[in-house]
Amino acid sequence: MKRSNAPIFWLLFGGGGMLAALFGTMLVFITGIAAPLGWPFGPDLLSYPRVLAFAQNWIGKGFLFAIILLFAWHAAHRIKVTLHDVGIHPGPVAKLACYGSALAVTVVAAASLLSIGF
Amino acid sequence: MNARAGVRRPYVRSMQGWWRRDPFFMAYMAREMTAFAVAIYAVVLAVGVMRLAQGEAAWNGWLAALRSPGSILLHLVLLVSFAVHAKSWFEIMPKTMPMMFVGGRRVEASTITRTGWIATLVVSVLMFALTWWWKK
Amino acid sequence: MPESKRIEIQVLRYRPEQEDVPVWQSYYVPFTDDMSVLQGLQHIKDDIDGTLSFRWSCRMAICGSCGMMVNGIPKLSCQTFLRDLLPGPVRVEALSHFPIERDLVVSVEPFVKKLESVKPYIIPKKPRSLDQGEYLQTPEQLEQFEQFSSCINCMLCYAACPQFGLTPDFIGPGVLALAHRYNADSRDGGQAERMEIMSTEEGVWDCSAVGYCSEVCPKHVDPANAVNQNKVNSAKDYFLRFLSPKGASK
Questions:
Q1: Structural domains of chain C, with CATH
Q2: Domain B19-87's class?
Q3: CA angle centred on A104, ends A50 and B81, rounded to 5°
Q4: C205 vs A4: CB contact, 8 Å cut-off?
């Protein structure tokens, strides 16, 4: 019987899941509800100069990249398992679709964050 | 005795709709479904940094999209989903850990779960405070 | 004499020589407060319908023979009481996720083969002679594996596990818990050999942490913990194998 390569994806799944559990709820609130509604942080929380400075700072850049990367790979792994659970497209097609999407998101985020510069 | 009683013809039952057969499985599915929220939010953030890299006009366009009622509604759904994720994550987390002993006594799974929820609360408060400080 | 109460027990029958598809059959069984589902089935077989087939032995939840689905939940029928299922009907079916051989009897052989494959016995770290005396273990060393040694091979956890239902080649919760019982024993040195099975897709990696196995286990073995703990061990083995060729598995 062949050794599985699952550990790679499972560790990414675990890291992303932990990050999502600890940070996700508040992050969604801040970026998706508080900032657009202008409450309670005011209307300029996510103004271009402020966010640019955050993303150019290596801590901010690292944080953004870690969140996007780990959330994407966490979701990809779990969705792949769920597809298997409900009997939809099992096998390599599901793997390619799920992990391929995560890879695409990773590349877009990496390229964007790098091009923003320091 | 029935002469054909020696016939073996094992019957395999269908797994279709298995998760609808028990509330435990439905809760499992609800937990697994939270992955879609995590995926959607990752894409939202990825598009965000892409727009950021494309310059101020693109960024402001993305901010405007965030302000739309559709986006607010989506993020409310995502918020609930992430909360379900956090709750269910720490419920299952003790299962991945080896036996732990503190002061000679076994650490219960419920203790580990509660520690996770408390950590989430602390991190959330810290993030809120940091954001408050950042906006100045 | 008061008229005895009766309870309806519906059993999913399957006789391969006379039907292609299982069929429900109802029986009305006289009932007293102390009766288990197993006793109900025994009454059916003794006094109503001798063709009903089911496994049982100890009647006290230690042999693991009488596992079946009672109202959709995997249970030991000797440990499930009719008084808790009133007013009925009580629906009894063979353990889920296993092929039905006849009535409430399922195919057990694949489970046994899987159990054999994980070498469920102490593999000593070094050869040991009788005059070296017994192994010594502290209470904490015992606690590391004791709960996993409670497994009675009843297979309720397999009936609970949807991943086993979807992928019958999955080694499964019970066998992986038993593999862990030996891995966690300080007397044992067989971790690397067992890791060869545990690190395959059919080993720990088919598990998606549903956790229902631990809910239904009549002996509180917590197989979910055994399996998921070993995902960490398998991941360690996967990445650290390049550093330690002697200790790691192939």
A1: 5-106 (3.10.20.30), 109-240 (1.10.1060.10)
A2: mainly alpha
A3: 70
A4: yes
Do B28 and C212 count as a contact with CB atoms less than 8 A apart?
A: yes
The span from the CA of B26 to the CA of B102, in Å, is 35
Supply the range of the domain harboring residue A65.
6-116
What pTM, to 2 d.p., does this model score?
A: 0.93
| A107 in reach of chain B (CB within 8 A) | no
- Residue-level pLDDT, tens digit, chain B, 136 residues: 555 557 899 999 999 999 999 999 999 999 999 999 999 999 999 999 999 999 999 999 999 999 999 999 999 999 999 999 999 999 999 999 998 888 888 899 999 999 999 999 999 999 999 999 987 7
Q: At what angle do helices B56-66 and A48-56 cross, to 10 degrees?
A: 110
Residue B14 DSSP SS3:
coil
Please name the residue of chain C whose CA is at the shortest distance from the CA of residue A79: C208
Which residues of chain B form CATH 1.20.1300.10? 19-87
Interface chains of chain B (3 or more CB pairs under 8 Å): A, C
The set of chains that have 3 or more CB pairs under 8 A with C is A, B
Residues from chain B contacting residue A30 (CB–CB below 8 Å): 127-128, 131
Whether residue A10 and residue C239 make contact (CB cut-off 8 A), yes or no, is no
Query: What torsion do the CA atoms of B114, B116, B122, B124 make, to the nearest 10 degrees?
Result: -120
Q: Kindly report the nearest CA distance between residue B28 and chain A, in angstroms.
A: 10
Its ipTM equals: 0.94
Domain membership flag for residue A75 = yes
